[in-house]
Amino acid sequence: MITNLPNLSETVRLALFEDIGTGDITTQSTVDPAINARGYLIAKAEGVIAGLPVVEEVFAQIDPELHLRCFVKEGSRVAPQTRLCEISGRAQGILIGERVALNFLQRLSGIATKTARMVSLVEGTRARIVDTRKTTPGLRALEKYAVRQGGGSSHRFGLYDAVMIKDNHIVASGGITQAVRRAVAQASHTVTITVECDTLEQVEEAVGAGADILLLDNMSLEDLREAIEIINGHAITEASGGVNEETVRAIAETGVDIISVGGLTHSAISLDISLDLTL
């Protein structure tokens, strides 16, 4: 089941070391190492499941002889009390990996569930829901993966894969036009140039400077509609700031191409999932 996730093995290794340290003294002192068991991962709430490949990696690193059998597919929506997986083998390994596996699965499924809700709210519009760099340090690849499992799309992964000229860059560069000109002169032709705009005047300047994407930050619905008219198809439009489940539909209906939502990752509530053990 392992999905091609960057640094998955190392991410799991660090998480296990953080939790286990020199050993699980409770499990090792109370559970006979010869005892076998079955553990069932059970969703306690409705949601979209993301992170099953990570669960597999967790238990594989603890005990390669543990066997994981999944009853649902990655990215599927489940009802409360749905059995997601069965882990069978030595009870010690199941107990040692339980918390780390659950932490990953609950967190990533929470992100996928929140993303799916946002995607459903803009259905029928042209807008795509995308994530941001507001992720947990060290877990960006996994959290952005969870967004995709929920039906969302990824923004730039890091500082290295797109030019995004924000307010402080504009100040440091002496203006939007100067910043865009420098970016065009130095960046590869394969790299897009985004300019964050807070006002309609900045929109006009960014269009004139030749920006590829205009990030319309914290604009009112009226200003968003006017900005789209000014841009008139000369750049991709992206709305950002103040986006939540109450506002996202109205923002989408202005006609923007993209809505970036930091809350997909920084404010997602973990999905309630438990592990029940049986001998």
Give a description of the structure.
The protein is an alpha/beta fold. The protein has two domains: 8-118 and 268-278, Alpha-Beta Complex (Aldehyde Oxidoreductase, domain 3), CATH 3.90.1170; 120-266, Aldolase class I (TIM Barrel), CATH 3.20.20.70. Helices cover 43% and strands 20% of the residues. It contains eleven helices and twelve strands. The chain has helices spanning 8-20, 25-30, 52-62, 91-121, 140-149, 167-173, 176-186, 200-209, 221-231, 248-252, 263-266; strands at residues 36-43, 47-48, 67-70, 77-78, 82-90, 128-130, 163-165, 193-197, 213-217, 236-240, 258-260, 273-278. A six-stranded parallel β-sheet has the order 6-11-10-9-8-7. Strands 3-5-1-12 form a four-stranded antiparallel β-sheet, with helices on one face. Strand 8, helix 8 and strand 9 (213-217) form a beta-alpha-beta unit. Helix 1 crosses helix 4, helix 3 (52-62) runs antiparallel to helix 4 (91-121) and helix 4 (91-121) crosses helix 5. It is elongated. It starts with 7 loop residues before the first helix and ends with a strand. 39% of the residues are buried. The mean pLDDT is 96.
**Proportion of residues in β-strands:** 15-25%
CATH-derived topology of the largest domain: TIM Barrel
What is the mean pLDDT? 96
N/C terminus separation = 25 Å
**Estimated radius of gyration:** 23 Å
CATH architecture descriptor name of the largest domain: Alpha-Beta Barrel
Shape: elongated
The number of helical elements comes to: 11
The total count of strands amounts to 12
Major sheet strand order: 6-11-10-9-8-7
Please give the domain count. 2
